[in-house]
Amino acid sequence: MAPIARRAHALKEALDRKKLIPEGFIENFTKLMEVDWDPANGARVVARAWVDPAFRTLLIKDGTRACEQFGYTGPQGEYIVALENTPTLQNVIVCTLCSCTAWPVLGLPPDWYKSFEYRSRVVRESRSVLREMGLDLPESVEIKVWDTTAETRYMVLPFRPAGTEGWSEEKLASIVTKDVLIGVARPLANA
Amino acid sequence: MDGIHDLGGTDGFGTVPHHVNSQSYKPVFHEPWEHLAYSLLFLGADHLKTFNVDELRHAIERMEPRQYLAAPYYDRIVVGTASLYVEKGVLTQAELEALAGGAFPLARPQTEGRAARPTRSHFEVGDEVIATRDFIRGHTRMPKYVRGKKGRIVHRTSVEWPFPDAAGHGREALRQPTYHVSFDAKDLFGDGAEASSVVVDLWEGYLEKAGAPNV
């Protein structure tokens, strides 16, 4: 088998020779993937929900409209549902069948999220998987796993940690990481 | 399709290769060709309308299982995308192999898929439902770990989408809402289950009212 780099370039070259790739198409789409779709987007949405109760209500009721206010909808982010954590509930997102993720809000899925290990195990051995990854939840915390099998794209709305009273939205957003939005980490005030 | 891709609940894999918050996630792509995978997929799906994303998912599922397991993620996107351009008559495998300077194995052949069962009734939040006992040779978005299991509706979508078992084969597809169906993890994985519940987003055509005969 030809190496993947050669196969990928062969596919592009074959389409190019038939004049099927418009000028700038690949560059523009690559910019969306590398720059525009970023977990900092989801972090801003969470920070707003933490400081603005009306926005929080909207985010839980209609995640798509809430994210639209920031311009964070688009491919793989057309029907967004926010999953609200509490001190005793941790929501975790997976796509066991492939890699579905809310691209505009969370960024493209990381390699580990697309790994066979995560896809196979997190629905069944959630607590162990989270512990191995560094999130050791006590038994009193319920774990709910959401398998992204259709068009809904999820984001986790984490619980605002103690010690963040009076923080600016920007500072709050800085503790909401990509892993927090996927649900395998919890935000920490002293991070 | 009960293929190798339907991994939920499969045993034997090791630890997830990640420790929380240890990565900056930049750069997004690690190899100079990786951005081509999604770019050329969206060229075909969004711009040229040669195929749809359901067909792409199914093309990847149709990869020979050993090739699927050995290929990195973006390699699978390239193989699935290339397979569809060839199956739709846009490119030939011969020209791809000539340009690649070696073999370019594609997905295995398509089956015919199935039409959506006509919608009989909407379900409501709180309803108990059974995921159908259907065994599907073609594309489907119902992971096999919920087949025949009882769950409870927690959300009905306000939008309807093409039934993937038809759309994934390039067939005309009825639109249906999907439902977030919450399954007790113990019903899925026994007493060893480590979550309280697993919520799966299922098209209406995958569901029956609990207690109704399986027809």
TrEMBL record, chain A:
Its EC number is 4.2.1.84. It comes from the Bacteria. The keyword Cell inner membrane does not apply. It is an enzyme of class 4 (lyase). Residues 4-185 form the Nitrile hydratase alpha/Thiocyanate hydrolase gamma domain. The keyword Transport does not apply. Fe(3+) binds at C95, C98, S99, C100. It catalyses: an aliphatic primary amide = an aliphatic nitrile + H2O. Keywords: Iron, Lyase, Metal-binding. SUPFAM superfamilies: Nitrile hydratase alpha chain. One of its GO terms (molecular function) is transition metal ion binding. InterPro entries: CN_Hdrase_a/SCN_Hdrase_g_sf, CN_Hdrtase_a/SCN_Hdrlase_g, CN_Hdrtase_asu/SCN_Hdrlase_gsu, Nitrile_hydratase_asu. Belongs to the nitrile hydratase subunit alpha family. This is nitrile hydratase. It comes from Panacagrimonas perspica.
From TrEMBL, chain B:
The lineage of its organism: Bacteria, Pseudomonadati, Pseudomonadota, Gammaproteobacteria, Nevskiales. GO terms for molecular function: nitrile hydratase activity; transition metal ion binding. It comes from the Bacteria. Residues 118-209 form the Nitrile hydratase beta subunit domain. Belongs to the nitrile hydratase subunit beta family. It holds the Pfam family NHase_beta_N. This is Nitrile hydratase subunit beta. Keywords: Lyase. Its EC number is 4.2.1.84. Residues 1-99 form the Nitrile hydratase beta subunit-like N-terminal domain. NHase catalyzes the hydration of various nitrile compounds to the corresponding amides.
